[in-house]
């Protein structure tokens, strides 16, 4: 499966956020600031997971429909992935 440039850019921003958190730790910033930034990273990762699962689900459903198959198994796999991430 091919991933969009926007998703890759999103992950690069998350990577930058992580580097920023590490820098904050090295500079002994207040733990509340660090936790706030970590929470933002977690939210960004969660949204990225949703995009990956959503894009994959859409792609897989189209494939199954083209083959004349039921999409139930594909949908269940997507739900399982989302549940696993929580």
Major sheet description: none
Total helical segments: 3
Mean pLDDT: 92
Q: Spans with pLDDT under 50 lasting ≥5 residues?
A: none
- Which H/E pattern describes the elements? HHH
Which geometry do the CA atoms define?
elongated
| Class per helix and strand makeup | mainly alpha
What is the strand content?
A: under 5%
Tell me the helix content: over 70%
Number of strands: 0
Radius of gyration: 17 Å
Distance between the termini: 24 Å
Structural key phrases:
86 residues; mainly alpha; 84% helix; 0% strand; elongated
Description:
The model has no long low-confidence stretch (mean pLDDT 92). The longest helix has 37 residues, at 31-67. 1% of the residues are buried. With 86 residues, the protein is mainly alpha-helical. The protein starts with a helix and ends with a helix. Helix content is 84%, strand content 0%.
SSE blueprint:
Elements: H1 5-26, H2 31-67, H3 72-84
Briefly, what is this?
The protein is mainly alpha-helical.
């Amino acid at each position: 499966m091919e991933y969009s440039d926007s998703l890759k850019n999103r992950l690069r921003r998350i990577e930058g956020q992580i580097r920023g958190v590490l820098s904050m730790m090295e500079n002994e910033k207040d733990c509340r600031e660090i936790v706030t930034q970590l929470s933002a990273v977690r939210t960004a990762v969660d949204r990225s997971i949703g995009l990956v699962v959503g894009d994959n689900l859409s792609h897989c459903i189209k494939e199954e429909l083209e083959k004349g198959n039921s999409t139930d198994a594909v949908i269940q796999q997507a739900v399982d992935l989302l549940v696993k991430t929580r």
